[in-house]
Design goal:
Layout (H helix, E strand, L loop, with lengths): L4 H7 L6 E5 L5 H14 L8 E5 L2 H15 L7 E4 H13 L9 H13 L8 H17 L14 H17 L5 H14 L1 H10 L2 E4 L7 H11 L5 E5 L14 H9 L4 E5 L1 E2 L4 H11 L11 E2 L8 E5 L2 H17 L7 E5 L6 H10 L3 E3 L10 H13 L5 H7 L19 H7 L4 H18 L3 H11 L2 H11 L4 H15 L5 H21 L7 E5 L8 E6 L15 H15 L2 E10 L1 E2 L2 E2 L4 H7 L3
Parallel strand pairs: 1-5, 1-6, 2-3, 2-4, 4-5, 7-8, 9-14, 10-12, 10-13, 11-12, 13-14
Antiparallel strand pairs: 15-16
Helix pairs in contact: 1-2, 2-3, 4-8, 5-6, 5-7, 8-9, 8-10, 12-23, 12-24, 13-14, 15-16, 15-18, 19-21
This protein binds adenosine-5'-triphosphate (ATP).
Length: 610
């Protein structure tokens, strides 16, 4: 492979700091690997003196493999790893800590779980809550903030401080550090022990950082300390692909780098080898709306290729059908399923498509865990009503819904594992007002039995009064009513195609089982169309890509309120677009869960006249 002029310049950069700005598909990995070869073979640098930092272990392993192939030797003792891996190595050496001192993710969640159970918090979805709180704790550590100055998006200031304090106390009592502590402890070690720092500075004479736009404050501070005194700090990144601001990465550090190293060489890799001219042109059209970015050109080596396609669809179900049709067509013409990807903003956007692919037996692979909507408490309530409608009389179904909405039926009125309305009536025989309620309950269940699932859900919500229960629930549990209504609307949509309750139940069973199997097989290499969030698609490439639900509220995501957050959403969209080699389709829907939905502003930007 022949380098272009800028790649060549980047490979043979001499000493001192250097920032390589590289657009998508411009050969970042290629450049880094060849620079390492150049340092070793042409400049006589010992491999042991080279440190390469990547953002995933996978990327580090990939880098080493490519290096071995390039140099043609099996053992090249360059240190390549993630920030965590490298800083852990340093701490291991300094403090003799081992894996027994590292808090696993599972332990971390266990601690957080026990901490929050001791507090009076109203939590709607525990899994979500724990993940967000863990992320916030990480943000504090990664940016070296104080919990007192941090504003949590999940709980009030006092509750957050208490969670943080209790978590730290428990962690310390176990004599363990978590993943984020590793960086902080390493920083403190270097700051307090110049002698130890000097040893590491001497060891790593040349430092290369990949995906520099994803660095956070504490990672940056430590790497700068390490690079002293020669400052052979070589950073490669794309500010337009900075998508981890939400978890503490600070792409402003790319700009800061220039201030900290005013003499740093600046090289822009502006040739895209991955995508067609049309894909490159259109992705630039969108990203150029971001104000805070380095201006840089990106030219495609490939021809214009097929036109970018923007497709309007009625709703997510129609969209799923459209994408599934297109996948089938491609497969019929010989394309491999693995070369196709469907990307979305949040994993739950994938549900209608997953249901469609299962129905059509199209192989697919999910990169992330897709929460099963039918396990949501509101879905469980609806399904329990339907089971009663089918004549089942299990106690747990009664318990699930007998007071949703409130009917004031007590648990003690349910005798055994099987329950009958007659028994409950007997229990309340001297209370006329209760008998009326129970009669109504039974009547509603009978009515439900005659309905198709879609109409049945509406009946449960409007006539039985489940929506009133949801309103109260949202109020008393301090959760967004809108979020719960969306779950119910989504359930309605998923039930719409089925004419009988039994049919819908069969579908739910198959869907649930497929998700379970996919979850188990996650780590295995599998065939199939790739389904993943835009975040997970970073660094990957596919011949054909569909971006789905490109609607306001999805992307930019509804929680992105500030200009800064909107710009990060635009970068995410840009990352998605630039994954495609040959063909890119952007889909948006006109209605979602029965409500009108606008196409994303990014679609408007795409359709603007150039
Ligand atoms: N000079 C070159 N000649 C031919 N092909 C090249 C050249 N440089 C890079 N490529 C090819 O371009 C493709 C994209 O490169 P690479 O994956 O390294 O891009 P990247 O900069 O890491 O992209 P992204 O940031 O979007 O993930 C690869 O298939 C790579 O082999």
């Amino acid at each position: 492979m022949k380098f272009n002029e800028m790649q060549q310049k980047a490979v043979i950069h001499g000493t001192g700091p250097c920032q390589v700005l590289a657009g998508p598909g411009s050969g970042k990995t290629l450049t880094i690997v060849n620079r390492i070869r150049y340092l070793i073979e042409e400049c006589g640098v010992r491999p042991e003196e080279i440190l390469v930092v990547t953002f995933t272990r996978y990327a580090a392993a990939e880098m080493k493999t490519r290096l071995r192939t390039l140099i043609g030797r099996r053992n090249i003792p360059v240190t390549a790893g993630t920030f965590h891996g490298i800083y852990y190595g340093i701490l291991k050496w300094a403090y003799k800590i081992g894996s027994q001192n590292i808090l696993s993710e599972e332990e971390k969640y266990q601690i957080l779980k026990s901490v929050i159970s001791g507090q009076e918090l109203e939590i709607f979805d525990e899994e979500d809550f724990l993940r967000d709180i863990a992320e916030e704790i990480g943000k504090i550590k990664n940016n070296r903030l104080s919990p007192d100055e941090f504003v949590s998006a999940k709980v009030n200031a006092d509750a957050f401080r208490e969670i943080y304090r209790a978590y730290e106390e428990k962690r310390k009592s176990l004599r363990k550090i978590d993943f984020d502590d590793m960086l902080v402890v390493c920083y403190e070690l270097f700051a307090s022990r110049p002698d130890i720092l000097a040893l590491w500075q001497k060891k790593f004479k040349f430092i290369l950082v990949d995906e520099f736009q994803d660095i956070n404050r504490v990672q940056y501070d430590v790497i700068r300390m390490l690079a002293v005194p020669e400052n052979n700090l070589y950073v490669v990144g794309d500010d337009d692909q900075a998508i981890y601001g939400f978890r503490g990465a600070d792409s402003e550090l790319m700009f800061q780098f220039r201030e900290d190293y005013p003499d740093a060489e600046q090289i822009v890799l502006g040739t895209n080898y991955r995508s067609t001219g049309n894909i490159v042109k259109n992705s630039l059209k969108v990203i150029s709306h971001n104000k805070r970015r380095f201006q840089k050109e990106l030219n495609a080596v490939k021809d214009s290729g097929k036109c970018l396609h923007v497709q309007e669809l009625k709703d997510p179900v129609e969209e799923a059908g459209y994408v599934a049709d297109a996948i089938e067509k491609q497969m019929e013409s010989g394309a491999a399923a693995e070369d196709m990807a469907v990307l979305f903003r949040i994993h739950t956007d994938a549900r209608p498509l997953v249901e469609e692919l299962i129905e059509r037996h199209i192989p697919f692979q999910m990169k992330e865990h897709l929460p099963n909507i039918y396990n949501h408490f509101a879905a469980k309530d609806i399904l329990a009503y339907f089971r009663l409608a089918l004549g089942k009389r299990e106690r747990r179904d009664f318990l699930q819904v007998m007071n949703r909405p409130k009917r004031y039926i007590g648990r003690d009125s349910l005798a055994g594992a099987e329950v009958s309305f007659e028994e409950i009536r007997k229990f309340y025989c001297d209370k006329d007002w209760m008998l009326d309620r129970i009669d109504q309950f039974e009547w509603d269940v009978k009515m439900l039995a005659k309905m198709a699932p879609y109409a049945g859900i509406q009946y449960i919500r409007k006539r039985i009064g489940y929506d009133d229960f949801i309103k109260d629930y949202a109020y008393t549990h301090n959760v967004e009513r809108q979020d719960l209504n969306e779950i119910l609307a989504e359930l309605e949509e998923s039930a719409r195609p089925y004419t009988t309750i039994e049919e819908w139940f069969r579908h739910i069973e198959e869907y649930t089982e497929t998700l379970r199997v996919k979850e188990r097989q996650k780590s295995m290499e599998q065939e199939g169309v790739r389904l993943m969030t835009l975040h997970a698609a970073k660094g990957l490439e596919f011949d054909t890509v569909w971006l789905i639900e490109v609607n306001e509220g999805q992307i930019p995501y509804k929680k992105a309120k500030t200009d800064q957050q909107t710009e990060e959403e635009r970068r995410l969209f840009y990352v998605g677009m630039t994954r495609a080699r040959e063909q890119l389709t952007v889909c948006y829907v006109k209605t979602k869960n029965g409500k009108a939905s606008d196409p994303s502003r990014f679609v408007d930007e795409l359709l603007e006249d150039s």
